[in-house]
Amino acid sequence: MKSLAPAGMAAPFGNYAHGVVSDRLVVTSGQLGMAADGTIPDGVRAQAQLCFANIAAILAEAGADFSHVVRFNAFVTQREHMADYMAVRDSAVAGLAIKPASTLVIVSGFTRPEFLVEVEATALLPS
Fold first, then answer.
1. Given CB 3.0 to 4.6 Å as the disulfide criterion, which of 24, 54, 69, 88 pairs with 125?
2. Rounded to a whole number, what is the distance in angstroms from the first to the last CA of the chain?
3. Residue 87: which of 42, 47, 114 has the closest Cα?
4. Distance from C-alpha of 34 to C-alpha of 51, rounded to nearest angstrom
5. pLDDT at position 78, please?
6. What are the extents of the domains in the chain?
7. Cα torsion for 13, 92, 122, 85, to the nearest 10°?
8. pTM surpassing 0.90?
9. Is 86 in a helix, a strand, or coil?
10. Cα of 37 vs its chain's centroid, Å
């Protein structure tokens, strides 16, 4: 196994890796809408864009991209956030012939009240 910690991302909040690759499997931790300098933009759309940018960086470190993702799991704090999140996700996978599986769950909150969305990915590298 190899830990994935791309340069230019904020450090994880605790004792865990942003991602792990083992053989062909790549798994990311849940990514929050926080920039490398620690700022958190207003709005689900801006936060989701950061989540997907972070996931793209983690995947790239493993030699993968969104075409290798088999599943996204996402969490938003309000039902009203679903459309903005889905617009960002749909943009990220727009050119893919095979879309990843996807789950979206409404949760009561995250570690800080400013966070509105969290996204994690599972990918499979080609053999």
1. 24
2. 16
3. 47
4. 8
5. 97
6. 2-124
7. 60
8. yes
9. helix
10. 18
* Token duo for residue 59: 């995947």
Q: What does the alpha-carbon distance between residue 106 and residue 33 come to, in Å, rounded to a whole number?
A: 16
**How far is it, in rounded angstroms, from Cα 79 to Cα 76?**
7
Tokens of 1: 């196994």
- Is 3.30.1330.40 the CATH number for 2-124? yes
- Tell whether the torsion through CA atoms of 51, 53, 60 and 17 is positive or negative: negative
- Return the number of other C-beta atoms located less than 10 Å from residue 101's C-beta: 10
